Each structure stands twice: as structure tokens, then as C-alpha cells.
Amino acid sequence: MTEPAPRARRKRMTGKERREQLLDIGRTLFAERGLDGTSVEEIASAAGVSKPVVYEHFGGKEGLYAVVVDREFEKLLSLVTESLNSAVHYRSKLEKAALALLEYIEESPDGFRILVRDSHGGTGTGSYASLLSEIAGEVEYILAQEFDRHDYDDKFASLYAQSLVGMVALTGQWWLDVRKPRREEVAAHIVNLAWNGLSGLEPRPSLDPRRRRKEMERLGKRAEKAAAKAEKAEERAAARAEKAQRRGRRESEGEPQEE
Questions:
Q1: What does the pLDDT read at residue 36?
Q2: Is 122 helix (H, G, I), strand (E, B) or coil?
Q3: If residue 189 lies in a helix (H) or strand (E), which one and from where to where?
């Protein structure tokens, strides 16, 4: 009788591999339930280990949470700052930064949910507010240079930086749940408002400069046609007014003089 094949031994994880496994599991659970709603037992059970293993690597769930938050904090900060520094034109900087945040949200929704909740008071880690403050500092530095170049008062660079970062960040929180329209469209509309203002919004904003140029050309031609039409309308109105004046003069001259 053939003996059954021995059961394959499960590969033993290294300390580094176990640590990364616990971080992945913790990120998922913290995103779903938050720090207070997650227990060490749940983390250990999901990892297939005993509770002492979690304590050995992180000292408890607070330590694990702190590392998760710090990693996501640094990841998002790096993505946005690199995007700000990777472009030359200021509109491109804004486009790339907005798109970087939206890409992070789309690809790391659990990490973003943890950041948006803000770090737990007892962890001592960076919060979403402090992350935005870091990003605003980068934007302020860039704006101050641009303001100085155009002889604007650079003391307002901080105000504008906070406004721009806040607009993008709040839109990102909203988009985390709705996910419509696609991220490129969202970024294009954010930049449309930030760059043009409400009084100069582009009807069809795009991140593609060529499409933007074509749209501007189309709008320019439409504006030319509208101006030409308005000019003709003014000419016709002036002609009617002049005709009415001539008729009035003739009628006035043909009236009998009063004694």
C-alpha cells in the first residue's frame, strides 16, 4: 500500500517578512475599523500567529499603527513634493501635484483612509493636518519665488498655498468615495478653478496642453464670430436709429408753423 505523501512544510517567514505581513494586515484592519476598533487578537489571527508575535515586533497595536501612519505619511508627501519639483511651468506643477494625490488615493485607498482619520492621539505620529501643512510649505516656497518674480507681495504666499492645498485635499477626500469622474478629469477641473478662477473657467478643461490649445482656439473663433455678429447688430441698430432720425426731421419740417 502506497504511503501518503508527506504534507509540504509551510515556509517559515523571516523576521522582516513577518513584520511586513503584519504591516499589510494592520493597514487593512485600521482602514476598516480605526485604531480603537481593531484588537491585537484580530491582527494576530489574520496573520496566523499568536499575540506575543505582534508585541515582539511592534510592542502592541499602537506601535504597529504608528509605523503604518508614518509610512503612508512619507509615501504621500514624497509623491506630491516630487511632482511639484518635476515640472517647470507653474500650471504643470499644480497639475502633477493634484494628479499625484489622486493616484495615491486610487492605488492606496486604505492608506489614505488611515491618514484622513488622523493619527491617534497617543501614537505621536504625523496626522493628515500636519501632512497638508508639510505640502503647503513646499507650495509656499514655490509661490514665493513666483510672486517675487512678478513683483507681488510674497507675504501672501502662505495664504495662497494653504488655499490651493486645502482645495485639492478636500476634493481628494470627496473623490475617495465617489470615484467619478476619472482622476485625470478631476485633476483638470481642480487646476481649471485654481488657475483660471471662477470668472475665467475653461468649459472643457484638460491636462493635455494640445487639447487645451485646440479648445482655446475653438473658443477664440467662437468669440470672434460673436464679436462680428454683435458688431453687425450694432451697425444695423445705428442704421435704424439714423433712419428714424431722418424720418423725424422730415416730418418735423413738413408740419405747419404754430402762430
A1: 92
A2: coil
A3: helix 183-196
> What is the Cα–Cα distance from 161 to 147, expressed in whole angstroms?
12
For the four alpha carbons of 186, 190, 192 and 198, in that order, the dihedral sign comes to positive
Cα–Cα distance for residue pair 253/243, rounded to 1 Å: 15
| 223-256 tens-digit pLDDT | 888 888 888 888 888 888 888 888 877 777 765 5
pLDDT band per the 50, 70, 90 thresholds, residue 122 = very low
Q: What is the pTM of this model?
A: 0.74
What are the grid coordinates assigned to 126, written together? 504625523
Report the run of H or E that residue 132 belongs to, with start and end.
Answer: helix 128-149
How far apart CA 112 and CA 109 sit, in angstroms, is 5
Task: Please name the residue ranges forming H helices in 34-89.
Answer: 40-47, 51-58, 61-85
* Distance of alpha carbon 123 from the chain centroid: 27
Residue 174 in grid coordinates: 470627496
